[in-house]
Amino acid sequence: MDWYIFTDKGLIAKIGEKLRQIRLEQNITQKELAERAGVSLSSVASMEKGNSVSLSTLIAILRALQALHLLDTFFREPEISPIAYAQMMDGKKMRQRASNTKTNIEEELTTW
User: Fold this and answer.
1) Closest CA to 44 of 23, 69, 68
2) Is the Cβ–Cβ distance between 56 and 67 less than 8 Å?
3) What pTM did the predictor assign?
4) pLDDT tens-digit profile of 10-57?
5) What residues contact residue 34 under an 8 Å CB cut-off, 6+ apart?
6) What b/e string do you get for 42-80 counting C-beta neighbours within 10 Å, with b at 16 or more?
7) Are 62 and 70 in contact (CB under 8 A)?
8) What residue ranges do the domains of the chain occupy?
9) Right CATH number for 3-75 from 3.30.70.260, 1.10.150.910, 3.30.830.10, 1.10.260.40?
């Protein structure tokens, strides 16, 4: 899905719809979810209607729905390329930051 076609409000509404779907699949009422998450009933209802809620409320609701795994993609570690892995195994340091190409060009020009 191309998430960039949505406005911020549209994304919030999609998240609310998904959380409502998860809640209903688990056969939990909004009141039960609010109690499990330690948030107000109005926060759960507001979120499901597509209104903005705080990040801590969202996390509490995800935890109560046992759906924190939905954050996995957000925290995925970058994969190491086979070449970078081989260099790492040879004792070479992995690159820590990008080089300043402007400085490198100037240095090359002065060596001519």
Assistant:
1) 23
2) no
3) 0.67
4) 999 999 999 999 999 999 999 999 999 999 999 999 999 999 999 999
5) 40, 41, 43, 44
6) ebbbbbbebeebeeebbebbbebbeeeeeeeeeeeeeee
7) yes
8) 3-75
9) 1.10.260.40
Q: Which two tokens stand for residue 95?
A: 């690159």
Give every CB contact of residue 39 below 8 A, 6+ residues apart in sequence.
Answer: 57, 60, 61
- Tell me the one-letter amino acid at 11: L
| pLDDT > 70: percent of the chain | 82
**Identity at 21, one-letter amino acid code:** Q
